[in-house]
Specification:
Pyridoxamine 5'-phosphate oxidase N-terminal domain-containing protein; 25% helix; 156 residues; 9-stranded antiparallel beta sheet; alpha+beta; Pnp Oxidase, Chain A; oxidoreductase activity, acting on the CH-CH group of donors
């Protein structure tokens, strides 16, 4: 698994694009896996805590329980107005629950509605952006993994 900080060091321009897109909207879509293996989508917010990309959750929320049982996730950044003027952003990886002193420090800083809210650090296995070329004739897809780095594809 790769932390946000490691990803940003390996692919700084891509990380900058992803960060700008995730900060452009408050709400994004998180996919987790239910007990039976079927997907569940939930609204979520993400934030950076130090070097880490994180998400929080209300105590006992289904998405938190899903992530505790099976940490695999996919996150689709809010696509905005649908114009594709800014690239679409998708991330996948594993969510690691933050507990103990670090979770308590987060609660003291962020002041979520409940002191027993969940905090997860997102470790990345892939990052993808899909955007439209400047001349609007084709898609530009950037795909990053820890093993292959960043690859760029175009599609007409």
């Amino acid at each position: 698994m790769t932390t946000w900080q490691e990803f940003a060091a390996e692919a700084p321009e891509l990380a900058k694009t992803v960060r700008v897109r995730l900060k452009a909207a408050k709400h994004h879509v998180l996919a987790t896996l239910r007990l039976d293996g079927s997907p569940r989508v939930s609204g979520t917010e993400v934030a950076w805590r130090g070097p880490d990309l994180t998400l929080g959750s209300m105590p006992g929320a289904r998405k938190a329980l899903d992530l505790r049982r099976d940490p695999r996730f996919a996150l689709h950044g809010n696509p905005g107005d649908g114009s594709m003027m800014a690239p679409d952003v998708k991330l996948a990886g594993r969510a690691v629950e933050v507990t103990g002193d670090e979770q308590r420090a987060w609660v003291a800083e962020v002041k979520p509605p409940s002191e027993d809210s969940h905090l997860f650090r997102l470790e990345l296995t892939e990052v993808t952006t899909t955007g439209v070329s400047a001349d609007q004739t084709h898609l530009i897809i950037q795909h990053w993994t820890p093993t292959e780095g960043t690859r760029v594809f175009t599609r007409k």
